[in-house]
Design brief:
This protein is an all-alpha fold. It has three helices and no strands. The chain has helices at 12-24, 27-49, 57-86. It has a domain at 27-86. The termini are close together.
Amino acid sequence: MEGRPPPNLKDPLALAAYRRELRGVASGVRWGGIGITLIGAMVAALRAWAWPAIPVLIPMIVVAWGMLLMLTAIALRTAYHARRMRGQ
């Protein structure tokens, strides 16, 4: 099944439009990962400064979860780019 033709990356206008298109791919997953990672960093800082009773593993798990979401967004965007270059 054929979809849209691949973008013309040599045309500056088409390249700019394709970059905007790529920015929208998995943006919710990417921003969610950034947000969760920042929350994990804040929990780690809170643990270090004011609340040492928080187990060390908690902020590590939250940061790892956020990083996993960001890596997932990168993989989704890469797969989308590959499909678009094939014209699907």
